Amino acid sequence: MKLYVKPGACSLSPHIVTREAGFNVDVVRADTKSADFQKINPKGYVPVLQLDDGQTLTEGVAIVQYLADHKPEAQLAPKNGTLERYRLQEWLNYIATEMHKGFSPLFRKPPAEFKQVLIDGLSQKLAFLDGHLQKNQFLMGERFTIADAYLFTILTWAPGQGLELSRWPALKAYFDRIGSRPAVKTALETEQKLRATA
User: Is 49 helix (H, G, I), strand (E, B) or coil?
Assistant: First the structure.
């Protein structure tokens, strides 16, 4: 398998999951503006997982579930059809629609007034997550899941937008806890090397 990533982007989430699950995968830095990449993913963005048979899978939430379901022994997602799996999907959708898309406009350098509206909205969501994590080690309780890989990825963007996680102590402790995992460290180090070779 090949995983196309862009250092600093949301593709870090499935990259972490491949490491957590122990997949043998080639991690490739994508030039999302190139014609070659546009043939791989006409949507023009990462992540993209290219399967051994040549098929591609896009959209991070789909990719991480595919990876988790193909390595059930890693216990990164509850079994399909269970209420716990729907709880996981609830978290994945919240991260995708409320957190990920909440940050996206900030990367386009909006006018100051609009930026403040976005920051205020994200602050409320970070406070909600902080409250949840005051009672839980991970999003789903006591076990790390693919949702944690995704949330960690989005939280890496917060300081660059002036959202210091230290304002939310439980969330900051969670971020540090995830960041200390060997698989997460390996993914971050790999992406740092990919960034340096650009």
Answer: strand
Domain holding 58, by residue range, is 2-75+183-196
Residues 6+ apart with CB under 8 A from 149: 13, 14, 16, 17, 20, 64, 178, 184
Report the predicted TM-score, pTM, of the whole model to 2 decimal places: 0.97
pLDDT tens, residue by residue, 68-83: 999 999 999 999 999 9
Query: Does residue 172 sit in helix, strand or coil?
Result: helix
Whether residue 70 contacts residue 44, with contact meaning beta carbons closer than 8 Å, is answered with no
191 touches 15 (CB < 8 A): yes
Residues 23 and 112 placed together within one structural domain of the fold: no
Helix-helix angle 12-21:182-196, to 10 degrees: 130
Residues 137, 66 share a domain = no
Helices 169-179 and 146-155: angle between axes, nearest 10 degrees: 110
Give the whole-angstrom CA distance, residue 7 versus residue 179. Answer: 16
